[in-house]
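hey so u asked for the seq, here:
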Amino acid sequence: MNILALVAGTLCALSSNGKLIDCTSTTDTLLKLKPAAESRRLVWTSDDGKRMAIAMVPANAPSLDLGKLRDVALRLNGDPARGWPVDVRIAFGRNVPAVTLPAKSVSKLTTLSLPPSRYNVAFQAEHYVSAMRSFDLAANASANLGDVRLHPLPLLTGTVVTKKDDKDVPLSGADVSFSSTKPWISNPHLATTDEKGAFRAELPEQPAEAIVVSHAGLASKTIRLDRRDTDQNLGVIRLLPGVKVTVNVVRPPKLRTMPLTVTLYRKDRGVYDATRVAEKVIAGSDDEVAFDEVSAGEHIVVLQGAEPLERMSVPVTVDEGKPASAEARIEPYTLNGRATFGGDPLDGATLEIYPTRGEQTWRVELTTAPDGTFGGTAWQHGVLGSAVNDPRIGGVFFTDSPELGADPSVWSLDVKKRLISGRVYDAETKEPLAKAELFESAEFLDDQGHKSTLRSGVHADEGGNFKVLAARPGRYELRFARPDYLPKSVSVNIGDDDGSKDIDFAVERGTAQALLLHWPDGAPIANATIFDGDAPEPGSLPPVYRSDATGTAMIRGKNGEVHTLYVLPVEGSIAVVHLPVAGKDAKPVDAVVARPTGALRIVAVDSEGKPSRGGVLLRYNGDLIPGEIVMRRYGPSASFDANGERVLDRLPAGMYEVWVMQKRELPAGAGARVGISTGEQRVQVTVAKP
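ran it, structure tokens below
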């Protein structure tokens, strides 16, 4: 329990819009409150700026005793080059107003006082990446967050030019925007180039995977952002004149009066989402639409009418310097669909319908009728995909249609009512783990006979009970991983004729072994991410730990085990630690992590010497670092650019072996060897064939 000395301060109520209101001066730890009909969030700040107390008090509470709050020690830091100190918002959740700490008080704050509870707190500031911290004041009398450093948002820079008389000419007024409008990106526009063609923009915390650079009269260019968590200079970006693409629309007489929306998309190498190039609306009497200044590459034309399923896409290839054309023939048909769950109507379910040719340039959301039916007039022929989302099926079910196009076309979509059910509980106490999280990995054959893997999270209820839909035959693996328990996984094979199955998760706490991380100069490494496991699979849920302000992390295991840990400090670097679990009273194991000093530029080529890509594996000073760990730090294999290059920055000095793999297997032979001391080292790797 915290006992504060008598100290002067100011007590305010926090309004719903985050403003401090009804402020009064205080001189005691027991703060008398004015009666209020509703509960309130109160903020107390000491006059010297060193302490801030935040607490929710119930309606008509007579007082707030600061002495009953618990202390969190911290220091807020940022980058003076980005205007630090700045106002910092302290946020406790999405629906809770944040408390703003003024810039003039940021350097003074050393203690945050809160009621006993578990917290996930975000420290937010303009031009900075949010710093997240978790701590438990219900189980501990205090917490020490140490140095809470806010890192500046990454800067994206470059220069846009065009060619005139075989010379690069700067382009003023070129637009730099994200290639797709994600729900979390409220403004896709990033920057406009200056008179020298240069641009400089801050990337938001969750940027899209690519940007589009465009200028009137020239073909646009899509550029994948290989790194979105650090400053990146894209260098010189050249925009050149494009060509004309003409789309001839053929439609039946009954559609001659219907206006159509025609959108042109470009499929860019290494970018998942197609880039929207241009959109035009043509009147019902028109049968042709043209798009100017189109760059070379694979494109898709999408036609859209008034009804949800009145959509169709047509591919078109554009060669360098050659005009292109495509014919879009609209042949409507009636789609009669019905969704069922184990034969019973699946009413009110949400269906997302989309083309399955790998383009997914359009998606339509439908809701099934009380009898489970869906459909209407449709234009896209062939096979359509569907994602069925409904609480009754426990998540999302993906399936493909039969061949569509006949009038009418019938789609019977049945989700087999087969479940994997169970309970997560403590093996020793038998008590359920309320709202425990599991990770599901399901492997099965899709409707085309191709092997598919789906990964998703599973949430148990208050009683630790969970249900997983196993509509398709295949192998289902459920994994449990939480810092205060040992990890556990259970696999279930489901055959065509199998029914529902029951499995339980009896999870053990094991032994907590202390790991103490520090730099060579003895400074503790706070907030490092620590992965436990030799080769966690992409998207899986391996045991993950974080070091506290003292550099300490408690790793769960069984006595006598040796765990291989992959340590990723926030500041960069990477380390492999072999941690012996020695028992309840064992001393902490010290691990020194080398400071980041250099970078590695990997050039991936195939057997013919052409640019390639794949997953990166490293061996650092004799220890293998799996591709999944490399991906967690540096992003997926698509981060290789068009020249087959990618940079792994902020690496520690040492000897490395490098592999670039296109299959998920450990390498059979030696990798390319390279030593890093300082600066950037370049290494060429021949990609291993799958």
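The longest strand covers residues 155-164. The radius of gyration is 29 Å.
lmk if thats what u needed
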